[in-house]
From TrEMBL:
The chain crosses the membrane at residues 12-33. The keyword Transmembrane helix applies. This is Uncharacterized protein. Keywords: Membrane, Transmembrane, Transmembrane helix.
């Protein structure tokens, strides 16, 4: 009887730590990406740079970043501005 209670408590402790671990993982991922960078989807290039493949921000302007996730922006995908009304390109300094 005592062993069954210990096994049950061990399972509860494991579940609690697992939930805590998953929660902290999601928080650290959100923190690691700057708020401004959340408007961009990018692809890592083999040379250590990135290519912007999608912009999710305001429709009237495109703040062109020089770096994303600490890596230099080398390219912008050709279809990024399709079906978008962009009136200005703003340099973004990080």
């Amino acid at each position: 009887m005592l062993i069954e209670k210990e096994v049950f408590l061990l399972k509860i402790v494991r579940l609690t730590f697992f939930i805590l671990f998953i929660s902290l993982a999601f928080v650290s991922i959100k923190i690691s990406i700057k708020t401004d960078e959340r408007n961009y989807d990018w692809r890592n290039n083999s040379d250590g740079t990135v290519t912007i493949i999608h912009y999710n921000g305001p429709h009237l302007e495109f703040p062109f970043p020089s770096r994303l996730n600490g890596k230099k922006v080398a390219k912008v995908s050709s279809g990024i501005f399709e079906k978008r009304d962009i009136y200005s390109f703003l340099p973004k300094v990080y």
